[in-house]
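Sanity check

After download, print the first record. It should look like this:
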Amino acid sequence: MTVKNLRWWVIALIALATVINYIDRSALSVLWPDIVEDLFPDESALERKQIYATISIVFVFSYAFGQALFGKIFDWIGTRLGFVLSIAVWSLATVAHAFAQGLLTFSIFRAVLGLAEAGNWPGATKANAEWFPTKERALAQGIFNSGAAIGGIIAIPLIAYLTVFFSWK
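Expected structure tokens:
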């Protein structure tokens, strides 16, 4: 059985993964007031800012390293398995945040999240090259990249709404 226009479904799923990627990435900034009260109740405002900066830097460094790492992984195991690995690990890392006990464990979970979320970009560009002829790649890339903007737009109100009913964990 063949699916008509399968390549467009593939890029739509990658765009959806990108939306989720950006929601995960944005969660820290929205949830930080609740997280800091729970994990760091005795620290001063300045110390809390320093903790936030440390956690953010750990994520960004891991994300930067993860780009090359997952680029190699996608070349080695292929696009499908690469996405499965990247999304599975970033999902587990997201869940693991709920078990953080302090700066070290929270930073480790952010590092794993950064490494795994980085796989979305090399995977998407590889899928684009595999599924689309040159004349359609810019449009496909635009569709995938729109997931970043859409995720950024919906992340803050969605996360804020969900925290009304659930804790940051």
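If your output differs, re-run the checksum step. Summary of this record's structure: The domain at 6-165 is CATH 1.20.1250.20 (Growth Hormone; Chain: A;).
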